[in-house]
């Protein structure tokens, strides 16, 4: 989840960004206690946990992102995220933000290819008053025509700022290279010509289709009794009609590259070249397949003592920066090596990366490398999930996008169960040193 983000008035288009900068994601964290899971009669899932932190986070995870859009409405999920904050049937323009801020709370949202996420952080004493407001604007967004036209200009400016950002341009080149058919090749924000022409009625239809209670998970974590937090949410839905659950979209992952697919572009705004080598690997629908690759990404390119950083940057000095990530979305993942370097060193660095991958085909990683990653995971386990926001984010993400909390609750043990042989088997299966997508961006 949890990086380069697009700054909006109240949101970040969370996954329309450069994947090379997110080696550690929320989905790679874990929690030590099992929260309470409760399903209301209307089918909405509530995950609740009391922790001794004097705040409450309410997170609403909607199973809709840019991946469900057609090309004709690409960008609708993100645009709708903006419009949710414009009010509901009972909340006028600005009333929601004023209510949250007047009580010292804060609110934000994010849109990705696979989900849309809204949250508030409030004091426990204010939760019963403010939580229904959050639910109201999400489920009953009014999408007024006049505000729709005003916000369209905000979103269009956001797209133009994104187009002016070299990192985002590189990310889009990578996406278009790696994904031939999956909707992940498209920008979450959508193109200018689409956003200029979508209508408010199209958005209201999109909202009715996807913002159904059964298509959401509500996670609430903070210093209140679990029964009280669930009760506040249940009271909000009392007596409300049950909407039809939308038919989910499903996609098949794309086959691995069977050759080296090379693309070069020129970006005169850069002072250094960029190199990205990417392999198609499993997504979250094959979650267990991602664990060895996530460990390997850390061994190769996370921190100064990792293999490629030591070799290519510290010792040989043929890159200024190098990182490795295994980034899994729902239907597809990417294993990626990214470098900033001088243009005359591109061929040398590409060959060096291939040699590292080939070595992994032939030789197991070391006990020391594996032990270091396990320590890192344990440290994240201890320090990375202390706030209500972090925990609620993990619960909502895993339940709604992965489909189960179990992997989040057991992540350290799952990582500890991965062997050197598992890592080598994953390398041999997914990382062919003679077949990958490579993007070279020259200044």
From TrEMBL:
One biological process term from GO is: proteolysis
Concerning its family, UniProt says: Belongs to the peptidase M16 family.
Q: Peptidase M16 N-terminal domain spans which residues? A: 47-191
Q: Which GO terms describe its molecular function?
A: metal ion binding; metalloendopeptidase activity
The record lists the organism as Pseudanabaena frigida
> What is the name attached to this protein's record?
Peptidase M16
Q: Which PROSITE patterns match?
A: INSULINASE
Which intervals hold domain Peptidase M16 C-terminal? 197-374
Superkingdom, taxonomy of origin: Bacteria
